[in-house]
């Protein structure tokens, strides 16, 4: 049972709830803190002093004061009017992550919402209920208003929701709640705003993408090492002294991983001497110089995202001292920018992987392997089109690396005049990560086939283990067949962590 306290949520917790369905509850400390700040809101309502989001309109209409007998209708109308999303629905895991993050933000106490609101949200999460949330409609300013409004609507028993994993089972949210024995919430003063003001939609997507990119970063090293072996390359460029001479931390870590993966290879020993080649191509020799900056960026990005998991992003913020402070913590620039950074990571890992795949299939560069790794070259095309697919995906990732967070378009009658486009950054990051997953799968399949042609020589213990795992998913080539199912299956296995044991215990 994960307990939310609004202060200590981490990336692995998000994965546990989004994917492993770990149950969640509100910590007692957070419950008490929420009661304290809720009392501040109640006092403001009683006093009748205009407070943004409590008894005023919103955005450009914030100068309009709302009568006390209309405050419930104000919050209900806010949620309904802001549920303006369009496009494909977010996947279940992203919605579950968003629900968890929104509950954690409320648990900080700064939103001034009742603990019962978190209880209702977590009851849905624990029951496997998730709202249908369209992915388009947020610019990430004043938070992800549209996506979060669709979440709040479902809590009110409106809109559509799903219980289970199949979006085709979506039904009226009120009916879904009723069948689960849950009661829709009635929002009180400020609580509609407390549910929709924040960065939790794009942060949920970015958090899950960041977690997968760590896994793919490790898989990229397995792919690199296997390709190096298949191409009769040298690990000399990964010498620790070379990395230390530069001093870049990520590069040092990347090279250490490659050295461990490539230790004690019979394939390497077969060409250690009397090899006319002086150096390998950049895609092999400079892997630490490309994978290393990816490590540094992932480390930085994870820090930003994990801070945002526990960030108070509402407006105004309700202080335990009794003050209500208006600010702009809902602005999504922080996670929007690092989502763009991660898209650059994904693009670079895809580009260098595709270049290694090209060397594996190119008869002028593959050190005697069959052209395109075909069993009967000419009669068969082998891996020709697999490399083309990798090229297409790598090139698309270059486009997806164009930053969204440098864009802005005024909204809300120019009240929100500088917006971060954080949701767009997160959504294109998700696509980029999916592309990378398939690019690496293509390289791993080709590298495994290349190693087959070096038999009876054996690679290292770790890489032979990787080869066996790949063979459990993708059979050895025996004549042309459609590569598509193999690529998809291995990509899904990589995303699920099937290669993690090969790199376990190497890095500190």
Q: How do the strands and helices of this protein lay out in sequence?
A:
Elements: E1 2-4, H1 11-18, E2 24-26, H2 28-47, H3 71-82, E3 86-89, H4 92-107, H5 115-126, E4 129-131, E5 134-136, H6 145-155, E6 160-163, E7 171-172, H7 173-179, H8 191-196, H9 200-230, H10 240-246, H11 249-261, H12 266-269, H13 282-285, H14 287-309, E8 317-318, E9 324-325, H15 333-361, H16 384-400, H17 422-452, H18 461-473, H19 484-495, H20 500-503
Parallel strand pairs: 1-2
Antiparallel strand pairs: 3-5, 4-6, 6-7, 8-9
Helix pairs in contact: 1-4, 1-9, 3-6, 4-5, 4-9, 9-11, 9-14, 9-15, 9-17, 11-14, 14-15, 15-16, 15-17, 16-17, 17-19
What form results from the Cα inertia axes? Answer: elongated
Fraction in beta strands: 5-15%
Q: Identify the quaternary structure here.
A: single chain
Strand order of the largest sheet: 4-6-7
Strands, count = 9
Average pLDDT taken over every residue: 96
Q: Helical region count?
A: 20
* Integer-rounded radius of gyration: 26 Å
**Helix share, percent:** 55-70%
Q: Could you give the distance between the termini?
A: 29 Å
Which structural class fits the helix and strand makeup?
Answer: mainly alpha
Low-confidence stretches: none
Briefly, what is this?
The chain has 508 residues and is mostly helical.
Overview of the molecule:
The protein has 508 residues and is mainly alpha-helical. The chain is 55% helix and 5% strand. It is built from 20 helices and nine strands. The model has no long low-confidence stretch (mean pLDDT 96).
